[in-house]
C-alpha cells in the first residue's frame, strides 16, 4: 500500500497559510520517503451547508490544482462534497423543510430513503422549503423517525401566491399552497390597492412565530379570481416558473441567424439527401427529433437525428444560464413555458421540413433480434422531407387509410419498416424485463376563455410507439457509448424499489394467488413485468398495477451510471430532446467535445466539477414542472366537473385512506368519497389490505374496485371533487 502525507483543506486562493501547510506536507513526505498529496473538496463545504454560494470562489478547481502542484505536491485528490457527504461526515443533518397545513412538517434529506417527521412543537420557526439543520429525536416504535429543527440555514420561500381578503384597517392573503398553515397578514399601506378576490403575489417580510402570523407586502396583482387566465397564472407564479426572458437573453437571441449557412455545415456529415421525417402531435412546434430508416440484407439502418441546440446556446452565455435556471419546458394545460425562446425552439433549432438544419445524429445498425451491432454519433446537416403527425402515421399503418397512403406513397414502405423495427425493439425490451405501465393519460381541451370543454384520453398508437421505441434505443446507445469511454456524463437513472414496499407488494399479491421472486429484498424488473402480464384483464388488474407503480422510485439525473430499473437496462440517458430539457443540451456539449477531440484533462476536470450540480438541479426542476402541470390539470378537471353536479359515473377506486376512498373516472378525473358518506355502515380503514371495511356488515371498498359515484360538489380553491356512492345504477351516464 502506498503511503502518503496528506494536506487537507479547501485551499481556495492558495494563500500564504495554505502554501505554508502544503510545503510542510512536501517536506514531511521527503523525510519519510513517500508521496505528498492535497485532499480537496470539489465544492466549498460552507456552501453545501448553507445551500447557496455564501462563500464566493477565488479560484476554480483547475487553477487551484495547478497552484498546489507548483508548490511541489505530487498528487491532488478531489472528494465530492454534497449534502449526502455533509450528513455522513459531520453528523449534521441538513435538509429541506416541507410544511403541512396542520402545523407539523417533514424534512427531506438527500440520500435518506424516508423523510424525517417534525412535530408541531419542534418546527421552531421553519417555513415551507427552508433549508434547515435538524437533530434526531427518539424514534417511536414502528413509526417514522422524528427530528427537531435547530437552525434555519436559508429561507426557501420568499413569495406567496394567494387570494386577497380586505378588512377595514388591514388585509390578509389566503395562500393557494395548501401546505401553508397560516394566512399572511398585509398592512393596508402594503396592499397595493388590492381588493377582495384579487389573486396577488406577496413578498414575505416576516415569517411569523408561535404568537404572530407571517407578514408580507403585495408586489403584484394578477387579476380577479374570475378573470380568464388568472387561475393558471396563479399556479405559474406559485411555482416560481420564469415566464419572461431577461433582456440580456433576448438580445443574444436576436443575434442568432434565421437560416443555416454553408459555413455552419463545414466539417459535418451531409445527410441532406437521406430521406427522413419528423413524427409529432398536431400542435407541436418545437420539433427536435427526426428519424430515417433503410433495410438491407436483414439489417436495419436507423438514424435518430436530434437538433444541434448547443450550436446556438453557448456554455456560460446568458442564454445558457437561463436554460439551466429553467431546466425544462413546462407544458401546462393552456400554454407552454419553453426552456428556450421561441426564435430558437420554434425556429432555427426546430427540424422543420424542407429547410437545412444542424443535428447530432445517432446512426445505428440493428439486427433482427433488436441488437445494436454497430453505431456512430456524428455532427450532421439534414433536411427533413416531411413533417408527419401521429394521427397521419396511424391512418397509414393501423387504419390502412387509402387517401393517406396515396398522399405519402413514397414514404409508406419506410413507415412499414419502422413499425416492424419498433416491434422488434419492444420485444427485446420486454424479454429483458422492461416495465410498461400503460395508465390512461388525458388531454384537456379549452375554449377561448380558458374553460374546459372536453377531457379526452391521449391516443397511444402505433406512431407514438415507433417514436418512443426509436428514442429509447438512441438514448441507450449514447449512454453506453460514453460509459465505456469513461468520460464525465449525465445519466438518467432509476433505482431499485424500496425493499419494504416490494415485500409488502409480494405479500399482498400472494392473497390473490400471485407470486413474485424477491432475492435479498430485491426484485428484478422482469418479475414486475411478469406480474403485470399475469393480472392483465383480471378484476384485480387496476389494483395490482397501481400498487406496483407505487413501489417504484422516481427516476432522476445523476453522474453515476447506476442503471435504469424500469427499463431494465444498465445504461440510459436523455439525448433526444435538447430543445426542452437541459440535461440533453449538456450531453450534446460533451458529445461535441469528444467528436472534436477537445476532451482533454482540463475539459474533463471542468465537467467533473459542474455536472453533479447540473444533474441535481435538473432533477429538482423536472419535479417542479411535473407538479405545476399536475396542479393546472387538477384545476381544470375541477372546473369541468362543476358542470356535472348530480350526474352519475362509473369509476375505479384509485386510493384508500383512513378519511375516505378516491375514485378515478375513465376520463382520468379523480375525486373522493369521504368515509362518513360511505353508505350502510361505519367503515374502518385496513392499511395492509388497501381497503375500508364495514364494522357490522363486512362490506368492503378496496383499491381497484369498480364503483358508481355521483358528483356531490367541487372546490376550485382546494382543487377537490367530492363524490358520493350512487346506488341507483339506472341514473348512470
Strand % is 25-35%
What is the helix tally? 18
Give the uncertain stretches in residue-range form: 729-733
Largest sheet, in brief, is: 5 strands, antiparallel
Q: Name the structural class.
A: alpha+beta
Q: Roughly what is the average pLDDT, rounded to an integer?
A: 89
Distance between the termini: 77 Å
Cα-atom radius of gyration = 28 Å
Helicity level: 25-40%
Give the overall shape, derived from the CA principal axes. globular
Going across the major beta sheet, what is the strand order? 6-5-4-7-8
Please give the number of β-strands: 34
In total, the number of domains comes to 6
In short:
The protein has 733 residues and is an alpha+beta fold.
Task: Explain the overall architecture.
The chain is of the alpha+beta class. It has six domains: 4-81, Rossmann fold (3-Layer(aba) Sandwich); 87-154, Nucleic acid-binding proteins (OB fold (Dihydrolipoamide Acetyltransferase, E2P), Beta Barrel); 159-227, OB fold (Dihydrolipoamide Acetyltransferase, E2P), CATH 2.40.50.700; 247-493 and 563-631, no CATH class; 499-552, no CATH class; 645-731, Nucleic acid-binding proteins (OB fold (Dihydrolipoamide Acetyltransferase, E2P)). It is 31% helix and 27% strand. The chain contains 18 helices and 34 strands. The strands form ten sheets. The chain has a five-stranded antiparallel sheet. A five-stranded antiparallel sheet has the order 11-10-9-12-13, covered by helices on one side. Helix 5 packs antiparallel against helix 18 (601-641). It is globular, with a radius of gyration of 28 Å. It starts with a strand and ends in an 8-residue tail after the last strand.
Amino acid at each position: 500500500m502506498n503511503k502518503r502525507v496528506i494536506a487537507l483543506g479547501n485551499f481556495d486562493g492558495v494563500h500564504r497559510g495554505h502554501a505554508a501547510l502544503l510545503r510542510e506536507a512536501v517536506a514531511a513526505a521527503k523525510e519519510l520517503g513517500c508521496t505528498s498529496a492535497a485532499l480537496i473538496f470539489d465544492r466549498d463545504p460552507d456552501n453545501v451547508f448553507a445551500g447557496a454560494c455564501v462563500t464566493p470562489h477565488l479560484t476554480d478547481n483547475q487553477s487551484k490544482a495547478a497552484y498546489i502542484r507548483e508548490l511541489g505536491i505530487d498528487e491532488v485528490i478531489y472528494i465530492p462534497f454534497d449534502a449526502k457527504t455533509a450528513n455522513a461526515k459531520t453528523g449534521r443533518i441538513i435538509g429541506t423543510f416541507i410544511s403541512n397545513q396542520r402545523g407539523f412538517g417533514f424534512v427531506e434529506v438527500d440520500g435518506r430513503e424516508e423523510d424525517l417527521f417534525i412535530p408541531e412543537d419542534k418546527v421552531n420557526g421553519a417555513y415551507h422549503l427552508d433549508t434547515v439543520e435538524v437533530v434526531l429525536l427518539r424514534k417511536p416504535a414502528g413509526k417514522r423517525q422524528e427530528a427537531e429543527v435547530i437552525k434555519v440555514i436559508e429561507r426557501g420561500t420568499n413569495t406567496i401566491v394567494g387570494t386577497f381578503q380586505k378588512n377595514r384597517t388591514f388585509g390578509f392573503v389566503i395562500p393557494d399552497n395548501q401546505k401553508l398553515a397560516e394566512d399572511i397578514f398585509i398592512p393596508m399601506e402594503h396592499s397595493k390597492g388590492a381588493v377582495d378576490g384579487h389573486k396577488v403575489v406577496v413578498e414575505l417580510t416576516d415569517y411569523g412565530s408561535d404568537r404572530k402570523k407571517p407578514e408580507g407586502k403585495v408586489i403584484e396583482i394578477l387579476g380577479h379570481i374570475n378573470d380568464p387566465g388568472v387561475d393558471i397564472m396563479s399556479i405559474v407564479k406559485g411555482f416560481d416558473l420564469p415566464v419572461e426572458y431577461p433582456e440580456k437573453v433576448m438580445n443574444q437571441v436576436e443575434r442568432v441567424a434565421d437560416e443555416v449557412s454553408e459555413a455552419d455545415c463545414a466539417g459535418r456529415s451531409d445527410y441532406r439527401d437521406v430521406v427522413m421525417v419528423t413524427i409529432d402531435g398536431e400542435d407541436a412546434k418545437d420539433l427536435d427529433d427526426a428519424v430515417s430508416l433503410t433495410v438491407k440484407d436483414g439489417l436495419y439502418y436507423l438514424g435518430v437525428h436530434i437538433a444541434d441546440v448547443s450550436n446556438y446556446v453557448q456554455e456560460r452565455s446568458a442564454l445558457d444560464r437561463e436554460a439551466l435556471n429553467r431546466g425544462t419546458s413546462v407544458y401546462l394545460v393552456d400554454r407552454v413555458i419553453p426552456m428556450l425562446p421561441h426564435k430558437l425552439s420554434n425556429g432555427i433549432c426546430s427540424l422543420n421540413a424542407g429547410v437545412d438544419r444542424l443535428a447530432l445524429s445517432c446512426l445505428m445498425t440493428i439486427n433482427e433480434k433488436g441488437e445494436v451491432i454497430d453505431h456512430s454519433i456524428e455532427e450532421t446537416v439534414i433536411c427533413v422531407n416531411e413533417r408527419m403527425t401521429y394521427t397521419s402515421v396511424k391512418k397509414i399503418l393501423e387504419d390502412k387509410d387509402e387517401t393517406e397512403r396515396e398522399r405519402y406513397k413514397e414514404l409508406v414502405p419506410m413507415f412499414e419498416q419502422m413499425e416492424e423495427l419498433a416491434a422488434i425493439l419492444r420485444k427485446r425490451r420486454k424479454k429483458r424485463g422492461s416495465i410498461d405501465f400503460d395508465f390512461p393519460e388525458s388531454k384537456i381541451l379549452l375554449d377561448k376563455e380558458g374553460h374546459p370543454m372536453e377531457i379526452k384520453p391521449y391516443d397511444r398508437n402505433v406512431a407514438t410507439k415507433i417514436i418512443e421505441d426509436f428514442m429509447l434505443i438512441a438514448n441507450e446507445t449514447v449512454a453506453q457509448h460514453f460509459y465505456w469511454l469513461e468520460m464525465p456524463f449525465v445519466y438518467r437513472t432509476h433505482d431499485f424499489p424500496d425493499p419494504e414496499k416490494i415485500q409488502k407488494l409480494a405479500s399482498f399479491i400472494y392473497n390473490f394467488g400471485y407470486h413474485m421472486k424477491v432475492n435479498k429484498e430485491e426484485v428484478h424488473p422482469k418479475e414486475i413485468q411478469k406480474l403485470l402480464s399475469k393480472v392483465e384483464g383480471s378484476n384485480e388488474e387496476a389494483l395490482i398495477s397501481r400498487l406496483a407503480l407505487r413501489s417504484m422510485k422516481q427516476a432522476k439525473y445523476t453522474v453515476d451510471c447506476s442503471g435504469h430499473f424500469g427499463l431494465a437496462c444498465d445504461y440510459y440517458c436523455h439525448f433526444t430532446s435538447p430543445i426542452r430539457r437541459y440535461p440533453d443540451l449538456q450531453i450534446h456539449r460533451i458529445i461535441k467535445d469528444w467528436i472534436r477531440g477537445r476532451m482533454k484533462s482540463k475539459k474533463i476536470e471542468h465537467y467533473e466539477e459542474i455536472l453533479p450540480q447540473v444533474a441535481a438541479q435538473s432533477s429538482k426542476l423536472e419535479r417542479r414542472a411535473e407538479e405545476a402541470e399536475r396542479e393546472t390539470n387538477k384545476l381544470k378537471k375541477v372546473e369541468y366537473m362543476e358542470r356535472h353536479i348530480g350526474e352519475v359515473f362509473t369509476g375505479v377506486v384509485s386510493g384508500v385512506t383512513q378519511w375516505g376512498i378516491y375514485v378515478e373516472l375513465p376520463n382520468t378525473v379523480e375525486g373522493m368519497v369521504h368515509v362518513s358518506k360511505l353508505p350502510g355502515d361505519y367503515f374502518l380503514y385496513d392499511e395492509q389490505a388497501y381497503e375500508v371495511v364495514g364494522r357490522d356488515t363486512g362490506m368492503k371498498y378496496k383499491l381497484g374496485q369498480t364503483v358508481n359515484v355521483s358528483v356531490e360538489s367541487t372546490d376550485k380553491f382546494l382543487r377537490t371533487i367530492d363524490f358520493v356512492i350512487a346506488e341507483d345504477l339506472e341514473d348512470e351516464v
